[in-house]
Structures are given as structure tokens and as C-alpha cells.
Amino acid sequence: MRVFLKPDQNVTESPDGDLAWSVESSNDSSQITEWQGWNDSGLIAPEPLPLRSRFGHRLSIAGATLSRQLQIEVDRGAGFLWAPVCLAVGIAGYFQLPREPWPWAFEVLALAFMVVAFVSRNRPMLHAALMGCMLVAAGAGLTRLHTAANDTKMLERPRIATIAGAVLQREMRANGSVRYRIAVTEGELARPDGSQRIFRVTARAGGPDAPVGSRLEGLARLSAPSGPAYPGGYDFAFSAWFDGLSGSGFFLGAPTATRPVEAVSSIQAVRDGLASLIRQSVPGEGGGIAAALIVGDRSGISAPTTEALRRSGLAHILAISGLHMALVSLTAMGGLRAVFALFPQIALRYPVKKWAAAGGLAAATIYLTLSGMAVSTQRAWIMVAIMLGAIMLDRKALTMRNVALAALVVMLVSPSAILSAGFQMSFAAVAALVAVYEGLNRRNAARPKTFRKGGLIAGTGRVLRRDVGGLALTSLVAGLATGIFAAYHFQRVAPLGLLANLAAMPVVSFAVMPLALLSMLALPFGLQDWPLAAMAWSTEWVVAVANSVSDMGPQGITGRIPVSSFICATAGLLIMTLARSKLKLFGLAFLLPAVLLAQTTKMPAILISEDGRQIAILSESTEPSLLRERGSRFITEIWQTAYPPNQADGTPHSSLRFQCDADACSATVNGLQIVSLKTSASLWTDCQIADILVAPFRLPDACNHVPVAERPLVFDETSLRSGGSVAIHLGADGSLSDATVERAVIGSPRPWNRHRFHSNQ
To answer: Which of 138, 154, 285, 527 could cysteine-pair with 755, CB 3.0–4.6 Å?
Structure first.
């Protein structure tokens, strides 16, 4: 036996001959000695341990502590909480693969891990690790199967064609235009097998009124959904492919609306009719917000209001998610319990709480159907269904296990949803809130119960402190948890979001959503005007709060966040919310690297859009210089948000301008000549003077007459179509000799970008 002693520890011999020692506190833990034993003259003098032995001793103590904490995690059932995390890692890993895996490769790997885990079930730690690996492989295999089952066929090249089909959905835009979602089963755009292709086409204001279910036909300019606006950005084509969208565009003139089509879902027709009825009952933006909250149609909300809600941190109100679903279901449940309480013979004899929970679930299901069944709404319904189901089964309604179960169900139904901002933000907010309130409940349960004296004023004060404090804590926790994902996906945060939510959320919770439910209950009797008017008046307060807070604070633009920073921050959040022992403190260790890595974003010198029609020359001190100042506004706004200049108060405009003639536009940056061709008339000369040559059309064998060493970088329609948008980072000396060229699309074709690699339809 080896006994380690500190300088202030004594070794004595007990009466029974055994050794005993007393330990006192010491501020110097660096001098650890080892008792050697006894000899005839007494205790052998201790000698300092070697550095390696001291390190090994501390390492053994740390290992023992970690083992105890892991055992606490196992005892408290934390393993199930990490199951959706492992599944999500596998799903995300599949999407990051450079090429499609072999069929059944991940499925066989998952089966192998499961067999080995079953064999090692008597070794808990190894068994848990193998089960985690099995879930990762299963997540990748599940996503491969889900991807293989999707048969969306996108347009491979922009084209002008006659589109004819049934209107599945329409959105009345604030500028008077109408955006239709059309199912095409006939004509030149139809598939040979007769299955439908879905297109999203916008008609200018003044066209015919084509409600859901009618047949719409017209000449349109169509293209496949665009890819990322810059390398590493949001891939619109990825989301569109999983949403079944083959292309989008606009009508060249007014389309023609004809007979109704019976194949269209009657639910969509009901939603469309409800949206029109709401906007007729409550004209203006109040009706647009009411339609957004009831049927999920946000087309009636103006762009300034949307921007104010986004900057103030209130944009989540417009997206039908867990908040709205919970308010509707709990309002219905509370109303039913109040009705049952009026009949004591029923309330005292029967499980009216379970009946009310069933009624709340029915209300949530109806809300899900009327709101359009978007992915975010489906997630919210699953979470509410699990919560209300737990009530009906006499279980705790809101626990971390229920959150994990809801995440598993969503990922099994729609694996691609994990990459969306809505999935990440909603589950991050719910998990963080459940973790915080579970901790507070355990803390309050450990406190001794005391009787608080006081009259009505004191009791009212305690209630107000509790409710206001609870709302503030909820807004703070949810804001911090979702801020990571808002910065990564939208390159912005809401600095004054806590203030805005404190002012607006009580109105949303106690006025807006209950009135929305009341208006739908009054609709069959023709009495919906008054509840809708009151609801619109309540939303005006929310908009006023959004405008005031938006004017008070900064824009909160963070710029592009590196993936490494996002992964560190997400890992830290997961550990702090899911760990059930002191291991949750390790989550804090990931936050500092996340902050440091967030500062490592390098602004490219040049950005090129995937269609070659927009070029930006970026600078950290001035606004970007654009090829087209008024063109490609959507792409330009994304670039300016991702790579904002480092100026706190006003950013000066760049003096650099593109000089244009009939054949090309050119600009010089750091001695490099950038040329954007309009036609190929001056190609021979431009190849000799340009360092970077961009053309929105094909240039086969371009610049072959120029020596290879002097040949410019060429980005034509073919290379931009296959590789997507371009970001060019110049070398240290501002030259192209050691420049880095990033492409938005890399690797072999994947199902969602395969259309890029085909030359014709």
C-alpha cells in the first residue's frame, strides 16, 4: 500500500499497531511526498515524489472523479437524452459527405455496432459508447433512405415555358402581386410518368384572382432554386429539393384562370378562404398579422414591419411554433376544465383533467391543419402531443425526456429538418428552459417550507414579482439559447430582445392568441368580426413595441460565424442542458473557444454570384463596390449581412467603381483587373488584360490563345453552374499567386444539386 502525504500531514502508530495519519488543510498542494515505511529507528523520512508520479496521481484522481460523475449520469437516465444528439450527428454527417455512400453501407455498420453493443452489455461505459456509435450510423442510414425516397426533379437550366396546373397555395403579397404554388401534370414541364412537379410562380399585380383549387396557365420564366449566395451560406436549392419544389419564377404577363381542379386538397382551399376572410374582416396590416398567426399566411405583412420584428427579437411571433401551439392547446384545455368545474358531479367523479388534455390535443391538431402543416408547426405539434399525452397517462408533462422524444420523432419523420434554423432554435429554447426550470424546482424543493405573512398588497407584489421575474427569466434563457443559432443562420442577434419580449409577450399570451382561438370558435356563427378586431388591435401593440425597440438599439449584425465556432457553442449548450451531474460545468469550457473562433472569419476580397451577374469587391472599411448597384438586390443584401464593414458609426461608400461599355464592365483592385463580360465581342482583348474574367454565358475554350502562365481566372456559366458562387481571398501581397478560391458546391453531385451538372433539360 502506498500512502501519499503532504508536508502538514502526520503519521502515527495506533495502539493496535496499524498506521494512522491526520490530515490538515494546506495551501501548498505542489509538495506531495510518499511515506516509505518504518525501520528500527522509526519513520523513514519522506522524499518528494518525482514530477511524473505527482502528475499520475492527479490524473488518477481526475479519472476517478470523472467516473463517478459519469455513473451519476447513468443512474439518472441521461443516456436517453443523448440519443437524439447521436442521431443528429449521423444525419448531419451524411449531408457533409463529399459523395453519396454505397447503398446499405451505414445500415450494415449500424447493425454491426448494435451486435457488438449487445455482446458488451455487461460493461456499461463501453456499451453506452457503442450504442452512441450505432445511433450515429443509424442516423446516416436513415437519411440516405429518406433522400433516396425523394423523387423531386429540378429544372436543369433556366427556361421560358408555358406552365399549366392546379393552384395548391397562393400568397397575396403586400405589393399586390400573388405568389402561387402550382402542381404541373401536363404540358412541356410535366414528367413522362405523369407525376406532378411543383413550381412557385409569381404573378404581377392586376392579374386574375385564382383561388386554391383553380387551374392556372400562362407563359413564365422559370429556373431552379438558387444555391448558396456565398460559399458556406444557406443553400436554397437544398431546402427546395426536400420540399418537393422543382423551380420558381414569374409570369410573363397575366396568367389565365380556368375551371376548378378536384385533385387539390380541400384543406388548402379552406386555409385560402380563411386568409381572405380574415383580411376582409380586418383590413390593413393587423389583418395580415392575424392571418399569419391563424393560418400561417404571412404575405400580408409589410417588409418594414418584418424587419422591425426581426431586429427587436420578436420575429418568432410570426412563425407558428411551440409558443403558439402551446397557447392554443393550453387555452382550450383551461377553458374545458373551467366548463367541467361548473358541474361538480362530473368534476369530482371523472378524470376531467385528462378529458381537457384530450380537448387541448384536438385543438392543437385542428390548428396544425389550418396553419398549413409547416415543418416548424409539425415539430410544435409533436412536442405538445407528447406533453398532453403524458398528462393523460399521469406522467410529468414537460421533462427533458419528453423533449428528447419529440426530437427523435421529428428526425425520424424528416431528417433534413435538423439543418433548418427553426428546428435548432425551437429545440434549443425548449431544452434550455426545461433545464433551467428543472434546476429551480429541485432547488425550491430542497428549501424548508415557510409561511409568508402579509395582506393583499404583499401577496399581489409576490405574484407580480413571480410572473414578471418568470417572464424575464424565460426571455433571457430562450434568447441566449437561440442567439447562437440566430447569429449563425441569419448573421444577426437582437441586443434588446429581452426588453421587447417583456413588453410584448404578455399581450401575445393573454390577448392575441386567446382571441385568435375565440375568433375561430365564433366563425361558424358569423361572429368573428369582433374577436378579430380585438386581435388586430392587440397586434398593433406588438408592432409598436417592435418599432420602438428597433429604433432604440443597434442592428445587431454579427457577420458570418465560422462553422467551428458554431459547433463549439452548440456542444457547450448541449452539455449544459442535457448533463444531469456536475459535468454540465464542462459546457462552459466550450464557450470561450466559440467566442475566439467567431473572430476568425476572413472577409474575401471578391464575391461572384452563381449566375455571374453580380460581383462585389469587399473592404473592411467601406461599403462593397458592386457590379450592378440596383440589380441582384436579394444577393447583395445577403453579402452585406454576411460580411459587414468594421465601422461602428456610418460606413463610407467606396470610391471604387466598375467602368462599363457596351461589351464589358471592369474594375481594378490591388492592381488586379476584374472584367465582367456582357457579350463575347471583346473576349480576345479582355483575355489579355484581365486577371479575373466573369461571363454569365458559356465560354468554351476561353482564352486558349493566351499563355497558360498569363491566362486569367475564368468563371463562365458552365463553371458557375457546377460550382456555384465564388469567394476569392487574395494572397498576403494582394496577388493571385497564392490566392484561395472557395466554391459553394464542392465534391461529387449529390441528389439535391445533381441538376447543376447536367447541361440541358
So the answer is: 154
